[in-house]
Amino acid sequence: MTVTNGTESETVTVPAVMGQKYETVITPTKGVHASERTKEPTLNGHLNGVSQPPNEITVNGGLSLPAIPTVDGKTEVATPPGQLNGHTDDLKSLQAFGNGHVDEDLLPSTKLQRLLKETDEIIVCPGVYDGFSARIALSVGFKAMYMLHDMREHAEMIANLDPNGTPLIADMDTGYGGPIMVTNAVNQYIRAGVAGFHIEDQVQHKRCGHLQGKKVVEPEVYLSRIRAAKAAKDKAHSDIVLIARTDANQQYGYDECISRLKAARDIGADVGLLEGFTSKEQARQAVQDLAPWPLLLNSVENGHSPLITVDEAKDMGFRIMIFSFAALAPAYTAIKSTFETLKYKGVTGTQKELTPKVLFDVCGLQDSMTIDANAGGLAFAGGV
Asked: Which of 51, 218, 261, 361 is buried most, with the most CB atoms less than 10 Å from its CB?
């Protein structure tokens, strides 16, 4: 943030350290110079009369933030977004940012990072394919979701059902080209509000990880994709989670997979994903060979990998588990059955308790009613 002293107020600019830029005004106590206020950061390196290191500013709760002098004599401080809303008292929320729990006001990407770094739980992500399946996942209470395939617009819609809500991990396939296309894709996902994404080493004309005939690029090409993705997130000051995926197991074997993932880890990937385990023993070994780096397990039931339950995955040490077809496969079964009933019986056979209102409630009807009522609206005054 940039703080200018000597006036009745201070202009505070929060840079895009984690994906967004904010500007607000902090008003000091009237008649008291900003550098003399208690329990607030100052530009002369003091807090409550105690000298601070010149390269830091300390705010409430002992949270130290980097202080970077600028050419105009001001001090710029890297600050997490969503922590200042225009009142000096809200600096206390910076304390909450570092106190070890996942704050509900954090960006989804930050929540995902903190779940990985500050807990030992396994993050279970059901696969969703549209807004309705995402709404269902939210209503059940999952802490994160996974979206199969690209579709930036689709990702943006799902990620912003609740902009400060459940983190969404999205598929980025191969990055859609060379470093320039990878950079564009990462920037689009950051702007869309996606919390994490995986990028892989298949050739551009890729196929599902659980089909035969996969081909992967040379390690140098794969790592160029990871470097471009890392550089893009760093330039955007985003904490979006970069997941390095390899599909080399089918073509080159396990050892090549571990070599590629270690190289991706060493240049900045946050999480690893080895697609297409051939046994539970191989899955467990991968976690051990790459520890303590967190690994994601992609569960595709009836695919080429063995069925591993959430409890088994947690015992093995996996940190994230996605179920790519968790919504799509049962949706196919249910939709096909309903259409067959309609074709041959002339009705859909919908369960009696599944009323239009129940479906609208899943899609946010109650939230809409609350917004309208709180604003003094009468749209739902007669009930629904």
From this structure: 261
